[in-house]
Amino acid sequence: MSETRSSEAPTSTAMSGAGAVRDAFERLAHDTSARPLLVGLDFDGTLAPLQDDPALSRILPAGVEPLRTLVATPGVALALVSGRALHELHELAEVPVGTYLIGSHGAERARVTRHGLDRDVVQLSDEQADRLAELGARASQVARGRDGVWVETKPTAVVVHTRLAERDDARGAESEALALGDELGSGVLHGKDVVEISVLHASKGEALRALRDELGARVVVYAGDDVTDEHAFAVLTEHDVAVKVGDGETSARLRAADPDELVAALAALAEALTA
Ligand SMILES: O=P(O)(O)OC[C@H]1O[C@H](O[C@H]2O[C@H](CO)[C@@H](O)[C@H](O)[C@H]2O)[C@H](O)[C@@H](O)[C@@H]1O
């Protein structure tokens, strides 16, 4: 039933080096034809270092001010594009008013306003809601008896987390979760120590492309760390800027070593935009 989205093998090796991303961002800031500019950023592993407990994830302090500057710059739009449930992304990311939030890998969308979230509400059909409930129950069975494996429930998906489990338990749980996704899901994402089974078709790539079209963005910057971010890289053009954060195969042309390096490059972008 499902479509597994993590197996689309990225092919190229990104250009690394602390200066490469910063240089590309600075060039973009000085190129006035690159407006409207849309900056899309993944959250976990990109703006926020990975944590054993997802509730503890926070944007790096050095990233807060650059994001404010991006949103305040005419001709520039900021979007966080995450697998997180929208309400959770809003709470954890603490982004400025005006930021677009894309949650649940594209299934949810909102804009941050002074009065809270202006959001599109996700409506599950009865069939989808029933399937989500069944997925939750079946995912709990996958976790049962496996130390460190636990289940997160989101508005459109369940996630089997394995970061805290020993290798055999993690592998066993991931393999059973993938099979469960094939049986009952509409889409399966195999990310970093997570298998996410959704009852809706959605992807970061489709959501990013829709936002780009709405805003009429001429250039898009997108940065992300996980295999699920490859779907966003895949919709970019040769004029856009794709940045893989951390290790791993990717179709992105540039690579930042970690969230610290990415955030430093965002600071350079913000500074160049206001110079
Ligand atoms: O698209 P993202 O913003 O990267 O969100 C993807 C998933 O993020 C969370 O899991 C990941 O981060 C956790 C906290 O650092 C980490 O413990 C886990 O191993 C990572 O996969 C979140 O819990 C998931 O629901 C998101 O889909």
TrEMBL record:
Gene Ontology molecular-function annotations: metal ion binding; trehalose-phosphatase activity
SUPFAM superfamilies reported for this sequence: HAD-like
Top-rank lineage group of the source organism: Bacteria
Reactions catalysed: alpha,alpha-trehalose 6-phosphate + H2O = alpha,alpha-trehalose + phosphate
Biological processes annotated in GO: trehalose biosynthetic process
EC category name: hydrolase
Family of the protein in this entry: Belongs to the trehalose phosphatase family.
Function statement: Removes the phosphate from trehalose 6-phosphate to produce free trehalose.
Protein known as: Trehalose 6-phosphate phosphatase
Taxonomic source organism: Cellulomonas persica
Taxonomic lineage: Bacteria, Bacillati, Actinomycetota, Actinomycetes, Micrococcales
